[in-house]
Each structure stands twice: as structure tokens, then as C-alpha cells.
Amino acid sequence: MNSSPADPFSALPNSGFTLSRLKRTVRLGVKSIYSHGLRSLLTVMGMVFGVSSVIAMLAVGEGASFEAQEQLRQLGSNNIIIKSIKPAEIEQSSRSSYRPSAVEYGITYQDIKEIELTLEKEIKLIVPTRIIRENVWYQSRKVNCDIVGTMVTYPQVRNFKVASGRFFTQSEINNRDNVCVLGYEMSKLLFPVQNPIGNTVKVSGDYYKVIGIMEESGYSNLGQSESGSSNSVSNRMYIPLTAAKHRFGETLIRQTSGGQESETVQLHEATINLPNQEAVIEMGKIVESILERRHKKDDFEVEVPLALLRQAEASARVFNIVLGAIAGISLLVGGIGIMNIMLASVTERTREIGIRRALGAKRHDIILQFLVETILLSATGGLIGVALGLFVPISITYFTDMMTIIRFWTPLLAFSISGVVGVIFGIYPAMRAAEMDPVEALRHE
Amino acid sequence: MANEIIAEIKDVYKTYQMGEVTVEALRGVDINFHQEDYISIMGPSGCGKSTLMNVLGCLDRPSKGQYILGKDDVSKMEDDALSQIRGARLGFIFQSYNLIQQLTVAENIELPLYYQGYPESTSREKSIELANRVGLGDRIHHKPFELSGGQQQRVAIARALSNDPLIILADEPTGNLDSKSGAEILNLFDELHQQGKTLIMVTHSDELAERSKRCVRLRDGKVESDELVTG
Prior knowledge:
The complex is a heterodimer. Chain A is of the alpha+beta class.
């Protein structure tokens, strides 16, 4: 079979696999999909939701883990935070009847001293804090915020930096000076145009000189509702602990609907800083036992941010596994849906396959044609899914406070999965098409 | 018959297994096909016409015997090689046109060339030339369903010519057409014959057989008669 003029094996141009041929096959595939648009669209819906849920899930997961990390950074991974809580029995009785004397509860200076003495070697720093909710005024502007009376080491321990100006000094604490450092958000609310530093703000009759502004930080603290501060850390004002004690006293009077309510709390919060995070969870338990010995009432809480993070991570893992399984199942279902339609399409187009085979199409030409169509369908679904998958987390962030992060590789990953699903679920229908006997196929009605 | 033999069927048998029953569709058929032949194959239904056509079209392999097409024995060839032979040496014209519905006229005509791996520019040029030749030069961007039956069959003829085949096989080419369209198709066949093409046509219509130059009659899987058409 060498040199006859009609030799089919040598007198022909290359009939193998070339790029221009593939391009043409793809173009014909697009045409074929486009020719029944609605059916194609419905076919790929499973893929669309599968791909978009992969992207959205990863974005939500990344956002949640970033937030948890950020909160840990703020609370400090080496820290144990102890907080005063109003015991439940006082809460009830103060509501039911008028009580003339102030309710006394919470962490005391004596507690701090005791902890300091017992754990002298283990603890690096301990920062006691008072938190008072008050209105802060500058001229006619007012912001309701948490006034935090604390020590010089607060920014260091809480990984919280002063953005401009400075934090207060030990001598200002000793002198009970009326100086304050504003949280970023409230500085913007009180001083929309002016430079706050050097100005004075007024809190219940006293004037405080603004000496600094803290850095911006948009994330709320972990579990702080107990101390009455649902505000974000940006909406706080920091003053020397001594000044807080001196100006506000230890008994706070609060107006409630049932009349007046007064309570005496020495310290609202204390941050115990350890040199590293190895012993932090264990040390938290020791601190708890010390406080338990000293307190009859259940009026304190020990919080270890690292333990909270570990918990958050564990539940995030479960969450991710569940969502991952859902996304995986929808991709599988999407793939099966596409395969189903392709099988129907192969049957429907039996005659077309017969014609193509009669006109010289080899088995692999038929495989390529149907595989390309399946991959195109699947990838189209993947593309729509990517668009939807980018849109969903963006709207989640827009309508709720939940943070979402879309990593550049997640759309790529999800899109490649759709391609792979196309190949996997396309092979079988394509093989079925190619295996057909041309004579039988041509006879098919 | 001065012309060279281009295809040869030598003692071909074809048996089918249909459940328990073995059907002998062809029982030792010998036919020679010469260049520029215009042959009609006739016979009652069940005589083995379709089976012979499938063998000639390389869509099916004989159970026994040889089929020489060009210089090659194609009776033992593998599937891919048969596809290659079909695409390179044969042109098909079917009773029901068998155009691909989602493709345009031009794309349908060039389909054999596409599977032969010709670049699109070459095949499109050829396809337009052939569309003009069958009188459909102004319809190349139409889809088959926009054409009449006669027009569709002319597209199929153009498609059968696109790969310059050794043999054109036509299976009841006028079976689905009214007499006027049928006559047009037969005129086109005469033209092709005059231009030196080799045509093999399966039909049960005497009228068609009379227009051909040679008539082979089959009966019970055997050649009953093989004679030149006179008149």
C-alpha cells in the first residue's frame, strides 16, 4: 500500500491531533451546546452551585480563621484574662427589690496581689483594668464609650499600638493625671477635622487631655459582653488606672428603669501576661483555682484566648468538613447530571455519529467530540459558578459583619475541579458514542 | 471494458448471528468494478443489497472472501484503517440525505475533509466550489432544515464529491424525493458519470436502473445477473 494515487495512508495531510483541529472541535462543540441553550444551562446548574459553594465555603472559612487569629493577636496568645462578672443571684435580687446598699462583687486589688505572689516566677506582667461606660464630650459632640483605666503596659500586653502621640507614663499614673488615649474610631467621631492630640475631652465633669490615638482595629474582642462592653476596641478611651479610681470611685451608680442601681467593683478585668504560650492553658487553671479559693460567689471568669482559639479552630474544622462534603456532593451531583444529559445526547445523536463514522471519523474523533462538549459544558458551569462564588462572599460581607477572604487560588481550584469533573463524567458517554457500530448507528431513527 | 479495475469483490460471504438463527446475507458474491462505471445494484428486499452496500462502503467486513479497493485488501482491516479508507476513497449518498442538522451547508460538505485533517481554508474553498457545482452556491450558510429535499440531496452529493473518492456509493438516492427533484438528481449523476466518476447505486426502481450503464441483480445473497444496460 505505498504509492497508488489514492493511497489513503500517505497521500493525505496529517490527520492526527493538531491544535488547529482541536480549536475547530471546540468551536463546533460551542455551537452544539449553544444550539440547545436552555437545556445546556439547566444541565450545568449542578456544576454552578457546586463550584460556587466551594469558593464561598473557602472564603467564609478563611475569613473566620483570619478573624480568630486577629482576635487572638489582640487578646494576646500569651495572656490569661480574668474578668469580673455580676453573680446571677445579685442580678435577680437587685431587680426584684430596692436595695439601698451597693452590691459588691468582682476582682479585687488583693486578688491581683495574691496571684502575683503565688505565680511570681511564671508571670511576666499583670495589667489590672477598670472599665466604665460613660459619655465622652468634645464641645457639642458626644460618644458613648468604654473608659478603660489601666496601666502603662496595656498596649504591650494586648499587642495594641499607639498610632500617633503616646500612651501615658508611670509618672502620670502616679500623679493621677487627667490624660487620655482615644480609640481610633471614637477619635474620628469626636474630631472629624481637628487633630485630637492636645485637645481636651470632657467626661462627667472632668476634663482629660488627649495625648495619643490607638491604631485602627476593626475586629471586636472575644467574649467581652460580661463587662458590658459590646463596643469594638476602636471605641474605647484609655486613662490611667489611678485616675479612673480617683475620678469615678469604686461605686458606680447606674440609672435603670426600676430606679437606681449601684455596684462596687474594684477591677473589671486583668490581663496576666506570660513569657510564652506553652503553659498558658495550664496556668489559666491555676489562676482559676486561686480565685476560687478567695471568692465565695461566682463573680469572676478566667478566659484564655489561646484556648478559645483552639476551640474556635476545632469547630471551624468540623464546619469546613461539613461544608466541604456538601460542596463535594454538589460537584458529584453536577457531574452526574452532565453525564446523564450527555448519555441522552449520545443516544439522540446516534445517527449523527453513524454519519460521521461513514464520512471517515475514527473512534477517537468521536471520543474527542463528545469529551470536548462535556468539558465545555462543565467548564461553562464552572465559570458561572466562579462568578456566583465570588459574588456570594462579597454580599455576605456586605450584608452581615462576617468577614470573608477570597484567596486567588480558590476560583482557579474550583474551576479546575469543574474541568476534571467534565473529563471524568464525559469519558463514559464519549466511549459509548465511539463504540457504536456504524451500520447500526446509520440505521437508527 | 477497457478501464482499469478499481474494486473487486471476490467470493464474499456475510453471515449474521441473530439469536439462535444464522442468516446468510451474502453467499459467495463476485463483482468487479471498473473506473468510470455507472452500476445499479438491484434485487428484491432481503436479497443482500444492503449488506453488499455496507461491505462496499467499508462499514462492515465480509465474513469470508476478499474486498480489494484500490490496491488494498480492506476485508481484514482494523476499525481505524477502515475509517481512513472511507474518508479517503469513498463517497456516500443516502436515501434520507443524512446531513448533520446543526451544521451549515458548507460545513456539511467539508466534513469528510475535516476528518482527513485538511486545514479549514483548503476545505472551505473546496466546499464552496462544490456547492456552486450542485447549484447551491447561495445557500452555503443555510442549515439543512431550511432546504428542500432535492436541495438537501444535492448537498449530500457535494459532500460525497469533496474527498475526490474512488467510488461514489448511492443508496436509493431518489427514494425520498418527488419525481421532479429525483430527475434533477439523476441528471446530476449522468453529469458525474460523464466527468469520469465511478458510481454504484442501489435501487429497486427499474427506471433508475435503466439510466445506469450496467446492472447487477442479486437474489438470495448471490449474483443473479450482471449485464450492460442497453437502450
